[in-house]
Amino acid sequence: MEEEAAAAWGRRGHGRVVVVGAGLAGLGAARRLWARGWRLGDLRLLEASGRAGGRVRSARLGKPVVELGAHWIHGPSAENPVFRLAAEQGLLAPGALLEESQRAETGGHPLLPSACFCSRGRPVSADLVSAMGALFFSLLTEARGFVASAAPEVPAPSVGQFLQEAVARLAQEWPEDEAAKRLQLAVLGMFLKVECCVSGAHSMDAVALGPFGEYVSLPGLDCTFPDGYEGLTDHLRASLPEDIVLFNKVVTLIRWGGSFAEADTGRLFPVQVECEDHETFLADHVIVTVPLGFLKEQQETLFHPPLPPRKVAAIQRLGFGTNNKIFLEFEEPFWEPDCQIVEVVWEEELPLAKPPADLPAAWFQKIGAFVVLHPPERYGHILCAFIAGEEAEFMETLTDTEVLRDLTKMLRQVTGNPLLAPPKNILRSKWHSEPYTRGSYSYVAVNSSGDDIDALALPLPEGASDPKTLQVLFAGEATHRTFYSTTHGALLSGWREADRLIHLCDGSESQQCAPKL
Length: 517
Ligand code: 6YU
Hints:
Layout: H1 2-12, E1 17-20, H2 24-35, E2 43-46, E3 58-60, E4 65-67, H3 81-88, H4 94-97, H5 99-103, E5 114-118, E6 122-123, H6 126-144, H7 159-171, H8 178-199, H9 230-238, E7 245-246, E8 251-255, E9 260-261, E10 268-269, E11 271-275, E12 280-283, E13 285-288, H10 292-302, E14 303-304, H11 309-317, E15 319-321, E16 323-329, E17 341-345, H12 359-362, E18 369-372, H13 376-379, E19 382-388, H14 390-395, H15 400-415, E20 425-428, E21 441-443, H16 450-457, E22 472-474, H17 487-507
Parallel strand pairs: 1-2, 1-13, 2-7, 5-17, 8-14, 13-22
Antiparallel strand pairs: 3-4, 5-6, 8-11, 9-10, 11-12, 15-21, 16-19, 16-20, 17-18, 18-19
Helix pairs in contact: 2-17, 6-7, 6-8, 11-16
The chain binds FAD-MDL72527 adduct.
FAD-MDL72527 adduct (6YU) binds at residues 20-26, 46-49, 54-56, 69-72, 74, 198-199, 212, 215, 250-251, 289-291, 294, 323, 325, 429, 431, 436-437, 440-441, 476-477, 485-487, 490.
């Protein structure tokens, strides 16, 4: 079969490709192949849902557009392909394009003007918050430094444990005043909750310390899309002919390593992709871009023959957590006009300990911060809460009314204003309940490493003697070793797998490959 497939491939100049999933990875891969000469008949993009974009999803809250999925371009500068594409398409505000914005080095943590409230209903001093912020981010930088270390040199298995031990040591030197110490630790606890959202993990105790520094932050001041992130995925979708992308096509089974005959041509293909509606697609190559959360749940039944043990282990070991957003629209702001982040500190919580386990009574205590959508001329008065982990998953089980009730109570408590008007509107994401995502994004969990990311990305069959016989290729944010969890990681992974096939094409003698674009 290997020789036959390679010979058929050679005659046609390139193999027939099915891409599964129309997020940035899938759209990027299909667009790249289209630009290099793949046409209808040799290229299909199958998407389970009724829309393109995947975890890039914009929605309206009243008039303004808000993001239920990806929010910022992380590191918007020349090396970031999402930034380049968005800039080319005129999707960004002029400020984002300035050289000085692109040069800014924030290490992924831009310092924005904030207001910090605590559970006793009073503001926390800005100096204290900024001192604790500086300490927290210096410890995170230290945590990233273990990347080059051999295993025995890593002082703790997880980022969370490393931070807790470092803070416990430092706190011994702090002044005797127990109340002051407690507040300092509670502020650090707030930064830790925000970091859970950044990593998309329930707890930083789940995030592996050794590989933490492999994630690369690009330079540039994180920026947003004034008219919605979906402008980017809409552009990619529109640059492909309509018939290439098929919606509501849930792929349920990928048979590979086979020999499937096409009814009208008799041509044999090694891969057959079957959908929920029983329609099948034959291919030489399939590029699978479904989220890691979906793979964790479905890999056993999605592939036949089953995936090799090394890949299954990588899927099981890597982390995929939930980070949700709750948008609250207010008639009037309770924050100052220049404030861009509202932080919340719970003094009663044990220092840097796990938040209370009583989810119905205290799920909202996992919210460390609300982002104020800026500028007010565009958004009015909207806060966006970020919440990660089990509390985020519990929140998905509540009704809008219950979430509004709990958050109004919480905001009244922390502002010390029992008459604070409730938000007039709410919109939230439920990424854990999304059947084709099952969470938000990947992280390198304790007992996994960047090698697992590479193992996930490896095409099948393993060790194919002729690269033209590669059948199942993997893309998606979770397959990018240094940019996992981001839109640029997703796009680059899609391009990587398209290029893998294009380079096969370059290597062939066929004239059917279009010139490079
Ligand atoms: C970023 C940001 N951001 C917030 C939230 C979320 C994410 N990200 P897709 O899922 O898009 O596509 C797969 C498709 O497959 C999909 O359409 C499915 O329907 C389809 N599918 C599934 N099963 C199928 C089947 N059986 N058949 C057919 N089709 C099927 N990224 O750059 N900036 O601000 C945020 C944020 C709430 C949920 C984000 C952000 C992540 C990106 O959204 C995500 O990576 C890509 O969109 C994924 O694209 P894809 O194509 O791979 O999959 C040290 C260290 C720290 C590490 N982290 C630091 C970075 C922090 C990340 N930032 C996140 C923050 C926010 C707020």
